[in-house]
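Quick start: read one record
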Amino acid sequence: MAQNCLKCLKYTMCVVNFVCFICGTAGFGFGVFMMMNSKVSSLIPSLSSLNIANMLFIIGIIMTCVSFLGFLGALKENRCLLVTFFILLFILILVELTAAFLLLLYESKIGSFLQRDLTDSLEKSRESAKGGNSTMSTGDWDIIQTTFQCCGVHNSSDWKDKMPASCCSKTQCDINQPGCYNKLKAWFEENFLATGVAVIVLCVIEVLGMCFSVTLFCHISQSGLSYK
């Protein structure tokens, strides 16, 4: 009975890690595709490297590597790989909890920072359009303004005389559109619960992965199997 339970645990861990590996590979590939084909710039100049493409690329690599270690360690019953998998999951949980704590602790400062950087990004886009570079007008600002039906950081006057087409409808430009900062802030507040639940579910999955790896490690040690 115990052997059957351990086999079930082993193959469950293999299946879950294989699914995570596929998801990580897809995220990695999509990130590379966006980096190769997307010409949009970052809305936050201070964190220009943390755009969507780079974040997908990094998250995909992490998921792929960690899940591969878990899959191979469970399949081959390799204690060294299982210990490495456990340590990496533990580090990821610490990083996630630390990031969540810092976001809650410095919420107001982060809001001021984002507001200042969004303003700098908009000014650079406006100056670029003024200099005859039209590519900036089809970047991240157009995507944000079209998606959230907003214009500028605080309102449409931020663009001055260089209001982009994304601030306008098919027939006219609405100068009374709300700013994107307040729209983005409201969107994050509305989805705060869903984000919190997603983080909790992710942490639970990681804790279960740690428990599975420890259980298999102890079983392998009691069986007298050496490092492969």
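Residues 2-37 form the longest helix (36 residues).
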